[in-house]
């Protein structure tokens, strides 16, 4: 049985850990409010952009713009992976990395060469240790970022696709569904496919909408397709940021509850140990008294 001092030290250590996890929970909660507000404001724009551009792409053939070209033989695939910079957020990063690794191995099994662009330290570390090539990493970028990061990454991906370095580009990010649910999502962003775009229908009548475009479709595609890539990347970064804070908030809340349970269990052990020590002392006193009588 452990000594009273050992149990007291364990209780003190767990209480200090609880203070840390509770503070981290509060910090994650504060950051989540800002991140959630950003993605909730941006998501309708990104979804409508995707909807409109899908309709626009369906009116043009593959030769209208190089970013619409579906190559007959796909030799190289680029995976843009968005993760967090820090851990302590449960299985959030592990889920994203697992999805990216499964996709990369599936592409490799098809005879394709897979390369990574990683935003976030956790994804960068995974790519460096894996069998796949890391083209570029953006560690320590998820703490503070704006559209310029998506613009820089989008320009690099577009240039690599147009020069034939990649034949396909897939974005993997953590979609923020709710406080308790964050889902790893895989989205092909190049080549842009009209088949993947959701059908545009009236919510009440069920009649399909038709957009009228000015100027010509080809001119609009030249302007909007590069912007589409950047918008989808930025949407993925915002979703991943909000998901990270929600996952860390939940993980720290669970850790705080576990600390409370550990303190209760250790307090019970402390009381039993103290009672055993008191009983032992009483037995010694009684034994000594009996010896003096005899």
Can you characterise this structure?
This protein is an alpha/beta fold and 294 residues long. The protein has 2 domains: 4-25 and 251-293, ATP synthase, gamma subunit, helix hairpin domain (Helix Hairpins, Orthogonal Bundle), CATH 1.10.287; 42-247, ATP synthase, F1 complex, gamma subunit (Pyruvate Kinase, Chain: A, domain 1, 3-Layer(aba) Sandwich). 60% of the residues lie in helices and 14% in strands. It is built from 5 helices and 5 strands. It has helices at residues 4-58, 92-109, 121-129, 147-162, 217-293, and strands spanning 76-82, 113-119, 133-138, 168-178, 181-190. A 5-stranded mixed sheet has the order 3-2-1-4-5, sandwiched between helices. α1 packs antiparallel against α5 and α4 (147-162) packs across α5 (217-293). The longest helix has 77 residues, at 217-293.
């Amino acid at each position: 049985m452990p000594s009273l001092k050992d149990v007291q030290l364990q209780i003190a250590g767990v209480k200090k850990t609880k203070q840390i996890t509770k503070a981290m929970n509060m910090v994650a909660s504060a950051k989540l409010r800002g991140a959630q507000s950003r993605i909730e404001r941006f998501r309708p724009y990104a979804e409508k952009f995707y909807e409109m551009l899908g309709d626009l792409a369906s009116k043009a053939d593959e030769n209208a713009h190089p970013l619409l070209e579906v190559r007959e033989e796909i030799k190289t695939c680029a995976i843009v992976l968005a993760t967090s910079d820090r851990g302590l957020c449960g299985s959030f990063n592990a889920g994203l990395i697992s999805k990216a690794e499964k996709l990369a191995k599936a592409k490799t099994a098809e005879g394709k060469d897979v390369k990574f662009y990683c935003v976030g330290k956790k994804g960068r570390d995974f790519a460096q240790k894996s069998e796949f090539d890391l083209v570029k990493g953006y560690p320590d970028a998820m703490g503070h970022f704006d559209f310029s990061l998506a613009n820089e990454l989008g320009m690099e991906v577009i240039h690599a696709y147009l020069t034939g370095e990649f034949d396909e580009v897939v974005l993997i990010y953590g979609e923020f569904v709710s406080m308790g649910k964050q889902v790893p999502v895989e989205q092909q962003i190049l080549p842009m496919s009209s088949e993947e775009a959701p059908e545009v229908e009236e919510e009440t009548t069920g009649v399909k909408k038709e957009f009228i475009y000015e100027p010509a479709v080809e001119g609009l595609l030249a302007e909007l397709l590069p912007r589409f890539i950047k918008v989808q990347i930025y949407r993925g970064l915002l979703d991943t940021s909000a998901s990270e804070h929600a996952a860390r908030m939940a993980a720290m809340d669970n850790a705080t509850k576990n600390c409370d349970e550990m303190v209760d269990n250790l307090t019970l052990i402390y009381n039993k140990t103290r009672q055993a020590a008191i009983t032992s002392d009483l037995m010694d006193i009684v034994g000594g008294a009996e010896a003096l009588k005899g």
